[in-house]
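3.2 Worked example (two chains)
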Amino acid sequence: MQWILICIICASFLFTLTAQWLRKSRKYESVNSVASSYDSWTNDRLLENLWGEHIHLGFYEKPRIKKDFRKAKVDFVHELVRWSGLNKLPKGSRVLDVGCGIGGSSRILSDYYGFDVIGISISQEQIKRANELTVNKGFCRFEVMNALDLKFEKGSFDGVWSVEAGPHIFDKQTFADEMLRVLRPGGVLVVADWNQRDAKKQPLNLFEKFIMNQLLIQWTHPKFSSIEGFKENLLNSSYCGSSVETSNWTKYTIQSWNESIYEGFRRPSSILKLGMGSILKAVREIPTILMMRWSFSRGLMKFGVFKSRG
């Protein structure tokens, strides 16, 4: 009888949580809505306290391998640098980090590889926090800027880096064009993103469309590219200097979704010290995280990585 009561209480709680989650969406309206969402996520310190300086996924060499979530995020940066060939650029090379968050990847690119890094974000609060966390400001600095209107001359950078920024950008072709425009001939472009299954090859059914809609409106995404679609955007750019290579890293990153929830149990003080409001915000994200995990496990979503030469 006790277990039945506990199950009823848990089911009621989950139903109430899901109802609240469905009502309070963060639908994409413009670049301002993206900036507002990230300003809020940065100011409440929830993601930073829970996951550290990197708000992207981690890298896991084997399924269910035991690894600290924050270390996995650092490993992801190094793995992507090696895969893309960015590590072959000499020290002092200029690198642009498009959608830099609070600067975690930018600082690794600067401190570990010796690059001169500029990170940009549409969020003023992210840029403010990135500057606060950065010690080596001479070779790692940050600016508020729209990725669709980069304020740099053509060929300004030896490398362009972007991780998990694309889903927040409506015009994928201009996104590709701008990154390639500011890349010098022979420079290295590397992009990693959440990508939707190619609906041209396998259309979404009604349930998948519902899931995809929730993944869009809950985290301020206008639309997802497919791996094939964004590769085409890069190849169609008048600034693309060579072929584009892609890979599906879903198997290396999918464990991150479960780990992102487990961190709340491993580091409860990181949430509790922020107060009840942050606890509720953390719980609110669980349905979206679980939907992401399900979507990546079923192939509805894929983690795509892209590299090209200017």
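3.2.1 Second chain
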Amino acid sequence: MSSIFSRIVSGELPAYKVAEDADHLAFLDITPLVEGHALVIPKKEIDYIFDMTPQALAALHVFAQRVAKGVQAAVPCRRIGVAVIGLEVPHAHIHLIPMNKVADMNFANPKIKVPEARMQELAAAIAAQIPGGSGLPAPAAATAFAAAKAAPADAKAAPADPNDATLAQLQKLTQGLVFGSESEAPLEAVSYAAPTGDLSDAQLLQVLGEPANAKVEKVELTLFLRNQTADTSKAGADIANRYKALQLYLKQELDGVQVYRIGTGPQVHAYALGRDAAGRLAGFKTVLTESERD
């Protein structure tokens, strides 16, 4: 299965693009260390950066240099830090990170949440500073993510209602996926009408149709999916990549994504939910089977 980055290259997934040529693409990291944190990738999928040919590796770094100059011109900083980690996504990529101190490059730091409007603003500002034919003039960069976000993956099958479009995409991403706990359960795409603003536990349970006295526990999405997205997942690399794609979609498309564990076992209902553009709670649900905890 294609990597998440290959799906961005193909247009299947949206991104805040800042530069592009025939062989390379640069876009903002959606879970950045600092504002302006960008990723530079070869369009041709290759897992390990040092498996690239010398010519391809050199070309990638030349492209990254051009992007780095654009980032530094658009984002106030002392330097642009460069890092290659290569453990999370099996597609070679270079991190370009605006930095004012060494600690800005620490990947153990909590990732920040940048509002969509600000990400679009940053993408446009950086793209406008990329020398040498970025292929993304500022107006295009400002709308690149919004256009990809609005366009359904399959235009013929997409319903007119944007809420249904979100649900339809979630259904595609979750189709055939099962969540492994002490047993396996399928993922089901869901969408609920809900009051605006933060929901109390009582309101959440009412929206979900769960018992009013059920226990509610919140879990961060990445932590909840850590075993499913791991490259060493028992289900295999293809399933791990599909879970990574689902995780990326939830974080990019929905605001305030949170996993809610409802109940105490041996079967716990788990909902991964965030707000879509229309204010609905959307995501997926599944069932966890585990020993009852005190």
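3.3 Remarks
The chain has a mean pLDDT of 84.
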